[in-house]
Amino acid sequence: MAAALPPSTVVIATKDRPRLVREAVDSILAGESRPEEILVVDQSAEPVAVEGARTVAALAAGLSASRNQGILEAAHEIVLLIDDDILVTPGWHRAFVEALAAAGPRAVATGRVVVGEPEVPGGFSPASAVSEEPATYRGRIGTDVLAGGNMAARRQPLLEVGLFDERLGPGTLHPSAEDNDLGFRLLEEGYEIVYVPEALAIHRAWRPDRQHLVYRWRYGLGKGGFYTKHASREDRHMLARMRKDVGPRLGRIPRSMRPGRRRAAAGDLVYVAGILAGTASWIWKERVRRRGGS
What we know:
Elements: E1 8-14, H1 18-29, E2 37-42, E3 54-57, H2 63-73, E4 78-83, E5 86-88, H3 92-103, E6 107-118, E7 135-137, E8 150-154, H4 155-161, H5 178-188, E9 192-205, H6 212-230, H7 237-252, H8 262-290
Parallel strand pairs: 1-2, 1-4, 2-3, 6-9
Antiparallel strand pairs: 4-8, 5-9, 6-8, 7-9
């Protein structure tokens, strides 16, 4: 008989995706083990009722704000987060909770994310994490390893580093990289990020192909904001990371213009343009904020 697990809450932020969020909750309820609470933070224009979950209205716009609200309102110290277009596998909940227990109080866990079968012609998913090897990350590692759409943590570490930055993520001017930012701050404060491949989730490929460049632009905007937030003359770590992200993409664009590879080249170009725009808009917004503007 499997050992009893400590109590936990799963938090799901949603906006105008009633079918997807209901099916996400169904996948949790079908697991080999279940959390004591599923909390849906709803930003939808028409409120969504989700069987098997406690639903609360979002208090502020944006994915990061809804995740933070869910973390604060969760009934239990252990909090698991997924996006509303995620389906979890039967062993997902147990794998995360057991990994946190084994790793100790200075750890946050993130899981494997694979892309589901296309649900529309040309359907795609904008993010995945497919390694099958467990890993533990500490300190400055030069890459982003925390997947906000499939993670688990005790509440206290998240509170100590300041939760998700509500200036980043979908629903903001910098609509991505909120999990990159949180992961970076956790590692900077001496926490570990444990990658748990057994905590397997499926990122549904429901977005049509025509939205590919839109998402590349959004990812670039968020990354530009994230890089600029942490960049400084005294500590050039983030500037070096930005150059490492942008340089190779620009370098391979001319080689990628052959028929059959132009989609990737266009995606790289739009992503880099988004980084530059995100950098400029972050600098502008910070100047306005420091002058007392909105």
